[in-house]
Amino acid sequence: MSERVPRVEHLLFGGHLRQLRRSRDWTLAALARRSGMSVATISGIERGARGASLDSILVLARALEIHPARLFAYIPREES
Known about the structure:
By secondary structure, this protein is mainly alpha-helical. The protein is 55% helix and 0% strand. The protein has a single domain, classed as lambda repressor-like DNA-binding domains (434 Repressor (Amino-terminal Domain)), CATH 1.10.260.40. It has four helices and no strands. The longest helix has 16 residues, at 8-23.
């Protein structure tokens, strides 16, 4: 089975997750230990190869000790 082409939103989310993880000097393995998720799953999310479910977002936010909304901080605000 071939890997699907990442959606732009998945790439942006994953890149932001990677940035948050690296800002703590954590490896993928460190975040995996803290979250209970597999390295492969986190790596897939960071690469944009897979989307993150609501449950995954909540688990990642808890592991990173941030509010879940911070995982979406890469989205520019629209002006009214």
